[in-house]
Amino acid sequence: MPAISTLGFILHDATPSCQLGDARTGDSSAISTPQQHNPATTTALRVAPNHQWISTTPGRIAKGQPWMMAIHWAADPKAKRYTPSSSHGPKAMNHTTLRIAQELANLKVCRPGVAYLMRKLKLSERSVEYHLGMLREAGLLVYRTKGTRVSGAVGQASVFERVIPVAYDEAHGIRTVGEGVQRRQVGAAQEARSILGKLSKKAARKVRKPRSKTASKRGGRCTLMQGGTSGLSSAGSTTSPSESKLASGKTDSPTPKSTSRPRRVLNKVGRRHQLAKELIQQEPWLGTAAVPRIAWVVRHVADAGWSATEVRAFLHHCASHRSDNIRRPSAVLATRLRAALTILRSAKDRQECVEAWRESQVAAQQRHNPADWQDLGPGPRSAVAQRELARAQELIRQRKAVAVAPSTEADGPEIFADSPAMALEDLSRAEVLEMRAAAAHDPSVIGLAIELIGETQARRLYTNAAVNRFLADQETANV
């Protein structure tokens, strides 16, 4: 039975595992034998991969400042104690290694994710991986649990343990008590204490990001060298400038402003947002839409080089006006632009669409100009619509007659017979409902009302929805 137990202990200690428990601890109080210390000896650091685990490392666990002392000792550029085995990457430990080790020393549980170190230290992923590998290879960092990268699942970060290699203890004649990785320091060689004191000062200082070595392009600063309340002038022996130079007000600044800036060129995403903003500003029915949403809707036409005028011309002249009960403005725009690139395939086609749209706008203005009306036509065919039209015409004639007649009141207000608002206010609710029903039966009544009393009053009488539907039908018929 003891032989089986001993065999199991040896196998557990020799084979690294992906999930290990706490390291072996011993309650022995025996102090290790002091090593023969020789300060002139340079000890090389290199740990094989199978010894980079908590169960197989010959080092001892350390935290905080003692571990940072070992880091500064191993990263000393003059001693060259460690040389990476990899042919690519950093050739030795440097300032970045110290910054990463400082972050690891501040962690209560040494489980640093690569993304965390990248975000905290502003480093690339490859740099973090290189320096963590160097710390492991130098025997300063060992695995307690190795991270996992399973496809389709969240990756787990590796759990490390900070250790001090045996070479560090041998180089300074450090005596330890305990067993295995749980050994702790109880003394050091007399001649190595000054070196340990210097390492302790280095470990106590915070390692900061080095400043850029690029020289500043600005000129020298103007700083007052003298001051206070003494009678000595702060200007020293400088000579005052002449009055001509003071009067001109022109001087050369030591930091002249750069007036010639290169024009900013929009990329593909910026062009989409620019087109979306222009459409929202120029089309009232897109006023409540968000710019990013409209930019995504118009991405195809924006990438094809369409301008806001070309998009508006296509919407009003070439696109279908059917929305299929779609209420959101962005959805209406997406529906109407669905076949834009198929209908208008070239810049010439888009230009022809713009010209046709502008001609239709001019024709619509001429069509709604009262000075150009010559003949109102035969009028509606429906008897109900004809009766309502005759009633409206009679009401307008009465108002004009009242306007022509002089007012009987000396100080009374002047009456305008051609005021449509007064005519609409005189209508009862039943009459308004009857006229709206007639317009729903025969939409041509709305066109006559627009010609007689104007579009504004027609919208008051027949509602905006009815007038918009009538105008859209007229525009489609004209196309």
TrEMBL record:
Q: Where along the chain is composition biased (Polar residues)?
A: 250-259
Show the ranges annotated as biased composition (Basic residues). 199-220
For this protein, the record's InterPro entries field holds: WH-like_DNA-bd_sf
Map out region (Disordered) in residue numbers.
199-268
Q: Which residues form a coiled coil?
A: none
Gene3D superfamilies the UniProt entry points to = Winged helix-like DNA-binding domain superfamily/Winged helix DNA-binding domain
Q: Where is the composition biased (Low complexity)?
A: 231-244
Its name, as the record gives it, is Transcriptional regulator
Q: Which organism is it from?
A: Streptomyces olivaceiscleroticus
